[in-house]
Design brief:
The structure is a single chain. By secondary structure, the chain is of the alpha+beta class. The protein has a single domain, classed as Ubiquitin-like (UB roll) (Roll), CATH 3.10.20. Helices cover about 15% and strands about 25% of the residues. The protein is built from two helices and five strands; from the N terminus they run E-E-H-H-E-E-E. A five-stranded mixed sheet has the order 2-1-5-3-4, with helices on one face. The protein is globular, with a radius of gyration of 13 Å. The protein starts with a strand and ends in a 7-residue tail after the last strand.
């Protein structure tokens, strides 16, 4: 199984500056573990200390937000595209 993962710019230093990488996993949780195996340190940027996806990290499977699917147990299949998009806050009042 091969899933394309779009990596946000702030995490690309962990993926040897690659904007897209291939990974495997039956669900989002397994995909994150596979990413960690191949790109050590990436999991702690995606997940908190309990292993849950950080609330500021938005993950999409084929353009659908996993929070409206099955969160980290959202199933994946060969050819899926996963996008990780960190939330951006700030601005001027």
């Amino acid at each position: 199984m091969s899933i394309t993962v779009r990596v946000p710019t702030p995490l690309q230093r962990l993926t040897q500056n690659q904007a897209e990488v291939k990974a495997n996993g039956a669900n989002i949780k397994e995909l994150i573990e596979d990413l960690e195996k191949n790109f050590p340190g990436i999991k702690e940027r995606i997940c908190d200390e309990t292993g849950e996806i950080r609330r500021f990290m938005n993950i999409y499977v084929n353009e659908e937000d996993v929070r409206f699917l099955q969160d980290d147990t959202t199933p994946l299949k060969d050819g899926d595209e996963v996008s990780m998009i960190p939330a951006i806050a700030g601005g001027r009042q």
